[in-house]
Amino acid sequence: MFDIKKCLALLCLMLAALPVLADGGKPAEYEVERKPVQLAEVFLKAKAPDDAAQFGLSDEWASMVTDNSREAYDITGRCQIRVSRNRNDKDRLTDDRYKTYWNGGTKGWIEFTLPEGMRCYGIYIQWAEKLSSYILETPAQDGTWLATGARHDAVYYNEYIPVNGLTHFRIRNDNDALDLCITEVQLLSAGYVPDWVERWKPFEGEADLLVLSAHPDDEILWFGGTIPYYRSERLKKVLVVNVSEQPASRKCELLDCLWTCGIREYPIVSGGKVFVDRYASQVRNIMDMWGEENIMQFLTGVIRRYRPLVAVTHGFNGEYGHGAHKSCAYALTKCLELAANPNYLLGGADAVLDPWQIRKVYIHLYEENTIEMNWRVPLASFGGRTGFDVACEAFSRHRTQDTGKYLVQDFGKYDNRRFGLYFTAVGPDVMKNDFFENITEERGIAPAE
């Protein structure tokens, strides 16, 4: 017997299952934020699971159309993956280790085929080595591959790429000078993007707080709850600058750490200059390796471009004596003056930047004008967890460094609560419990950011 109600429901389900098309019917590669499919007007709301099964739709689509608020999940393990070369290394793409990666060379590609009834709505990639350029392609009926959009330059080491319900596609290198190197890749189902998927955006405008660290993990070990407290609870724009050049694995860990702290604006990692990471105990040795004028130009450019109100960095004694830590303190105190001096000229694109006077500079463990932060206060932005709690979790994201040798400590010799006010243009601290005491300029970020 002809049932018009079920026929209409089937039509709605079939339309929902089609990929979104744009640009004259070609599959669209990107959209700003794909929302879960909404079928509130489907006639058979209550009976949708049974009817979906009757119509032969997959469990994937049945669950999607009956739960409009569910989180997308990792479907990589259910997909077939082919690579252009180094096939024995293919498993490195999904081994959950940043120190391993697959290298596809300058002509490399990775092909994904999803099982019947399943579609991909997001690709989450951790890049290895230098970031390359790539094209997303889908197969044509004649066996060739068609680009779904223009060439894209990878900008972030942890990158999320939203796509429109792809079932068979590949990522192809498009840079003859750089190899296609990927450490991890995950495909996501339909649904809203999970919180653990990092969706970075560029740092734009002026910074409230500049956090200057020598290595990935220093931003947490020595500064404790600074980043989660000021970024997420106080809604300050926090610019994290990591000076020393690092392998991709350490950069990916840094991003995981900062994302855990609530940072959404991409940090500056060595500023495009190679400040080599070699141990030395003396500032002079580090300056000889880095080139003193190189670091002065780089950091002064950062200060003039982002115009931070407050800056915080390592102790003059380098915490446990590390020369790179000492050099961050040395460079910041020098660039504090250089950035405000109109007679100090920068090269390149930074030459047009106006001088800038930082309002306050704090040095870790500095013994003058001391303040003591309290990272054990519950933070509403983290559901009542403290800044110290978040800092400990964030440090665990530095998996190659979380060996037990160093711990996040708000006590003892390296107490990450203790700082000294090295410079102020807004008067002395009285309450001595806030980096922004006496700062009256209003900046910050919107609560939703």
Label this structure with key terms.
single chain; 449 residues; alpha+beta; Jelly Rolls; Rossmann fold; seven-stranded mixed sheet; six-stranded antiparallel sheet; 19 strands; 24% helix; 20% strand; globular
Helix percent reads 10-25%
- Write the CATH fold name of the largest domain: Rossmann fold
CATH class of the largest domain: Alpha Beta
The main sheet orders its strands as 15-14-13-16-17-19-18
The Cα radius of gyration reads: 25 Å
Overall 3D geometry?
globular
- Poorly predicted runs are 15-58, 60-68
Question: How many separate domains?
Answer: 2
Could you give the distance between the termini? Answer: 54 Å
Mean pLDDT score: 87
Proper CATH architecture of the largest domain: 3-Layer(aba) Sandwich
Strand residue percentage: 15-25%
Order of helices and strands: HEEHHEEEEEEEEEEEHHEHEHHEHHEEHE
Helices and strands, with pairings:
Elements: H1 4-17, E1 21-22, E2 26-27, H2 48-54, H3 59-66, E3 80-83, E4 102-103, E5 109-113, E6 120-127, E7 133-139, E8 145-147, E9 152-153, E10 158-166, E11 168-173, E12 181-188, E13 209-213, H4 218-221, H5 226-233, E14 238-242, H6 248-261, E15 268-269, H7 283-290, H8 292-306, E16 310-313, H9 318-321, H10 323-340, E17 360-364, E18 370-372, H11 387-396, E19 418-424
Parallel strand pairs: 13-14, 13-16, 14-15, 16-17
Antiparallel strand pairs: 1-2, 3-5, 4-12, 5-11, 6-10, 6-12, 7-8, 7-9, 7-11, 17-19, 18-19
Helix pairs in contact: 2-3, 6-11, 7-10, 8-10
